[in-house]
Design brief:
Number of helices: 6
Number of domains: 2
Number of strands: 6
Radius of gyration: 18 Å
Strand order of the largest sheet: 3-4-5-6
CATH class of the largest domain: Alpha Beta
Structural class: alpha/beta
Order of helices and strands: EHEHEHEHHEHE
Helix content: 25-40%
Shape: globular
CATH topology of the largest domain: Rossmann fold
């Protein structure tokens, strides 16, 4: 398993705990860094290619309509949306190489998993005045918002909206979901599957300690979903339990 991060020291303990994990340094908004990590991965996987690429980078900035700036919006889009596409583009040769060695569709062959968010669903998130103040994040990658308002019963216990938490991240996952749809159609003939996956509201640096689940609780479900992926899931938007989410 190959894990990349911008600051290697943040995952050093993980690599010590699991000997099968190799850490690679990657800054997703740096073209040279992307090229470097692709070469490193190619040296490791060789002729077998890359079976599964998981795009999980993301940043968040809080800002209201009065506070938001073009620079902030562009910075968040660059990391949460554009960078995911550029990383995928760079790894396509290795994904195609893996796809040529097998049949069917899924992570056993070649797959791109874009980590999205429940908040990215325009059908589930109500047009509430409070949340209309959440600009950059909501336009790009919305599902990780702990204060997202759902049109149906909320799966997030103890959700408490915070008027000050105008989240710029929300805009980016929605855009990322469209990238997923485009890639799924574009790469289907290559046998490369692509989905968007909502991992759940988790206790991470971005999710915060109010989140109902720890990362360790979500991992078994996520791995089970990835293991079951096939052609019928290509281009879909799923959660960590394998349930289909509306766009």
């Amino acid at each position: 398993m190959l894990n990349s991060c911008r600051l290697l020291h943040e995952l050093q303990q993980l690599s010590k705990q699991y000997s099968n994990i190799k850490l690679l340094q990657l800054d997703v908004v740096c073209e040279n860094s992307i090229k470097k990590v692709v070469k490193e991965v190619e040296e490791i996987v060789g002729d077998k290619g890359l079976n599964c690429l998981i795009n999980n980078a993301g940043i968040n900035v809080l800002a209201s309509l009065e506070e938001v700036t073009a620079e902030t919006m562009l910075t968040i889009y660059e990391t949460n949306t554009v960078a995911q596409l550029m990383v995928t583009k760079a790894f396509l040769p290795l994904l195609r190489k893996a796809a040529q060695l097998s049949t069917g569709m899924g992570c056993h062959r070649a797959a791109i998993i874009n980590m999205s968010s429940l908040a990215a669903s325009m059908q589930l998130v109500q047009a509430n005045e409070m949340f209309l103040k959440v600009y950059p994040y909501r336009i790009a990658k919305v599902s990780r918002l702990p204060w997202a308002v759902l049109s149906g019963p909320s799966k997030i216990a103890g959700m408490k909206p915070n008027k000050r938490c105008a989240d710029l991240y929300v805009a980016t996952p929605t855009a990322l979901n469209m990238i997923t749809r485009c890639l799924a159609a574009d790469l289907k003939s290559d046998g490369i599957l692509c989905i968007s996956l909502h991992p759940g509201w988790l206790q991470t640096d971005m999710g915060g300690n109010m989140a109902p689940m720890q990362v360790q609780e979500a991992i078994p479900g996520i791995l089970s979903v990835l293991d079951r992926l096939g052609e019928k899931e290509n281009g879909s938007f799923l959660d960590w339990q394998g349930e289909t989410l509306p766009w």
